[in-house]
Amino acid sequence: MKKIISVACWVVCYFYFIFAGLIFAVNSEASPELAGCSVLPDNNIWNTPVDTLPKDANSDAYIASIGAATGLFPDFGSGTWEGAPIGIPYVAVAGTQPKVSVSFDYADESDPGPYPIPPDAPIEGGPNGDGDRHVLIIDSDNCTLYELFDAFPQSDGTWTAGSGAIYDLNSNALRPDTWTSADAAGLPIVPGLARYDEVAAGEIKHALRFTVEQTRRAYVWPARHFASSLTDSKYPPMGQRFRLKADYDISGFSSQAQIILAALKKYGMILADNGSDWFISGAPDDRWNNDVLREIKQVRGADMEAVDVSSLIVSADSGQAGGVIDDDDDDGNITNPGTVPVYRFYSEILKKHFFTRDANEKDTIIATFPVDVWRYEGIAWYVYPDAQEGLLPVYRFYSELLKSHFFTTDANEKDTLIATFTDDVWRYEGIAWYVHTNFQEGTLPVYRFYSDTLKSHFYTRDENEKNVIIATFPVDIWRYEGIAYYAYP
Fold this sequence. Notes:
Strand order of the largest sheet: 4-17-14-16-15-18
Distance between the termini: 37 Å
Largest sheet: 6 strands, mixed
Number of domains: 2
């Protein structure tokens, strides 16, 4: 894993803003189990099908950069390679396993521990390996996952490691934003491993982990960290989801290979680290049939596609996938009929947000600009595209001078801007969408802030975020201006 320290956000961008949205509803299934523990909640993004989600707008460019003619490579199996088991091993321990201290190279982005590492803990690549040297431990009594990167045991019983992360397997919590983990993307490793027991049971019920050689200096949900200096949008960001195309014929493969390929169609795989192109991770097991696994190499990059999972985001700080309907619960969170999503972008260069309901505008921005100019953050809320009784228009302005957009439902404010300012200061662009200006069942308020420092407005529908901004920043940084309107989550 190649670790590059992420640049700290500017003070007013300290908060990674929370947003929610739903376009597609997918049924949840029982989450995978390991060592008597659920491997993350049923509705975690790792355990969520993506076979009905839209293709990512930049999919073709990603596939070309990784290798359209390059075959998938199952980087796991039976036996050994260069004296070590093939794959990333893990070990389950009891809650009574003594914990030891670990010192980290990247201590500022590592969980300090201590870690319940048994003296004979398996190390990826073996005791003398010179690769990533992951050590993965599951506390089966407390359902806690411990993961280390570049781990070395010391003569006094302690360990050293490049980085380390601890996960509650019953929680959807993500790492702090910009933090690495034992993986470059800041994600856990164990939830993405192909395991023989799953194949023997007939189904893999989660996404798989994979690597590519060249990634972008960016990450998308649920990832928390990047590890690259490349900024061209043709390179995939950490956390990017891919899947096997639905029309790819897997009927000619051996049954075990079909199970893995079926999982790649339904759950796909998540880009988690820099490494060899299209290398898929799994746990070593002497029961794997390496000849069967080699069949997977027939699948080429051109048979894959990138997936846009942004509609599933409930919170930037949670791995929960929105729009997941529990099979035993009829109260699924379904978008209000007739509404459309408002997409949210953030510019690190301008230190400003932009909102649009135009899917073509969204796709053009994603395809045209590198992520430091405009980074797509997902769906902010849902609104009405057309006029209806009881709704008010949201007017949209653009300032060439300030490089900023402004939205208002106040017709007097709109008219004043048009009458007062020239087009280079504030140009009226028309009606953006329609909203309720009073609470209606199912809606939430969208709060409006103004920064005299940035000469820009910010909008959020998250009440906690609103309260934190009010409590943290002086009014010249962010001044709360009240409820702008009501929208659907």
